[in-house]
Structures are given as C-alpha cells and as structure tokens.
Amino acid sequence: MSNTFKAILISRDEEKKQSVSVTQVAEADMMEGDVTVAIEATTVNYKDGLAITGKSPVVRHWPMIPGIDFSGNVIASDNAGFSVGDKVILNGWGVGEVHWGAYAEKARVKGDWLIKRPAGISAKQAMSIGTAGYTSMLCVMALERQGITPERGPVIVTGANGGVGSIAVSILSKLGYEVIASTGRPEEADFLKSLGAGEIVDRNELSEPGRPMGKERWAGGVDAVGSHTLANVLAQTTYGGAVAACGLAQGFDLPATVMPFILRGVSLLGVDSVMAPKALREEAWSRLAEDLDMAKLDSLTTEIGFDDLIGAAGDIVEGKIRGRVVALI
Questions:
Q1: Any idea of the CA torsion for 23, 26, 29, 34, to the nearest 10 degrees?
Q2: What is the CATH number of domain 4-117+297-328?
Q3: pLDDT tens digit string along 222-240?
Q4: How far apart are CA 202 and CA 194, in angstroms?
Q5: pTM higher than 0.70, yes or no?
Q6: CA-to-CA distance for 168 and 166, rounded, in angstroms?
C-alpha cells in the first residue's frame, strides 16, 4: 500500500493568504477516525466552492482537504458497524471544513458519520445526489410530515437550477406534486420542465422586497435561497401551508413579518443536513433510492475529472453550473 495519496490541499501562509494545489499527502498525516475509505466519487457543492475560492470562511482547520461528500469502499475499520468492502456514503459532519474531506483518494473518518450505500445506487449516482439531493429529500420529508400532499396544491422550488433545486423538482414531480420552479436563468426553462416543473417563475418576482402578505399561490415550498426570496415565498403560501428552508444563496437574513404565520397558519420548517441524525439520513437515502428518477438524475449530472474540481468550485460560486457535477476518483 502506498504511503501517500493524491489530494487537493487548501493552505494559507502567515498573512492568511489562501492557496490551493493538487498534491501528494502522507497517510501518516491523516486525521483521526476509525474507518478508512477508498473514495470512488465526490461532487461539487456550493460550500465546496466557497472553501476552495476562500469567498467565505468555510475552512476552520489548516491545511484542509476540502469536499463535504464522498462515496467509496471501506478499506480498514475499527468500527463494529463497518467491515472492509462495505460501500458507504458520507455527507456533512464538518468534513471538508474541520476534518480532511472528499477531494482525495482516501479519507479516514468516524464510522458514526457514515451510512451504507443503498442497493441500486452506484457510487456515481450517490454523488450525483450528494448533499444537495439528500437535503432535497429531507425537505420533501419535512413537507410530508407537515401534511403537504399533492392534493393540497402546488409546491414552489426556489433556486431551481441549482443542485438542491433541480433534484427537488425531480423528486416532487415523481411523487405527483405540481411543481413551480423559480430560476434566474429563464433559458433553462425547458430543462426544468424536463425534470417535471409545470410552471417557471422568474426569480426577480421573488428576490426584491415584497408585501407582508400576497396572493395565495402555493401550498408548500422548498427554499435554498433565503432573504427576500424566502420572505416572499412565505407571504404567498396558502392557508395552513409550509415551507422547508435549507439554504442562503441570496442571504442569511429573513426580512419577513409574522403575518403569514399568525393570519394563515403557515409553517416555516428548518432543514439541516450537516448534523442530521443517522436514522433520518438512512431514511432519506432509502427514499432517494425509490423516489428519485435515476434517468432524470443522469440528465442533470455532468461528469468531470479529479483535476477539474478546482475549476468547478469557482464555477459553482459564480452560478455557472446547472444541476450536479460528479468527479470520479
């Protein structure tokens, strides 16, 4: 077994100037954990883009191997729950932020952070889904628990061309919901309709300051945007409806009023994917194996090489990526 492995490493100097390089890392330098995984595939999330470009203080341990998602095979284990040869998935848990992550040939992590990959989902498909798709499924499950069924009315998905949004559109459509897709890229309307969107809304309708209460337009929502967009989605949600919030692409503020909550009984459902308990993760991935159209997943996925990850990280921050990106290691 080689004593080094290929990785992308983010470093910074004494003046805190950040640099990124593809390099060889010594196995002896790997961080603590009880399971070692040979990584088969990873993906590019918005958070990964922020880490590599340094446009947000995502990285909190230096140097850092970025990448919050991976799928691979267990090659060593001191954890009773995993054996050599197990096919596993990791999403979140601070990996790629405070613990060496997925942009490498190997990772050593805590077994408690892993789940076994469901049968029927390949390593590539698992990373086509990634944290984005897994978060989408958590949002759909949150809406279901709140009683938002297809019969209740349409569901709006904001940031619909992004990773969370595009997979949410596909899942909701397959489950029988009428889907309204909000996007800032109207040229992608046909793509979104191919995923199952029935109506396209220009994001400008939602991204500016709006009225505290608007016309009731949708029974539910999946929002990865935040700020004025989320406020306007809430203001136009029907009586007793609910919105699952999981992101802050526009901003982390929420310039809203209590009126939708106290006059229409609207619920705002917070969805966290990073620290979600294992049982919820396993349920979400089991549902993804059943409720996500894998042909649609393939249509929204672009495959890149390991050496393309750094460039793709810049592209996702600049809004140049449609759907999902997968790198095979």
A1: 110
A2: 3.90.180.10
A3: 999 999 999 999 999 999 9
A4: 17
A5: yes
A6: 5
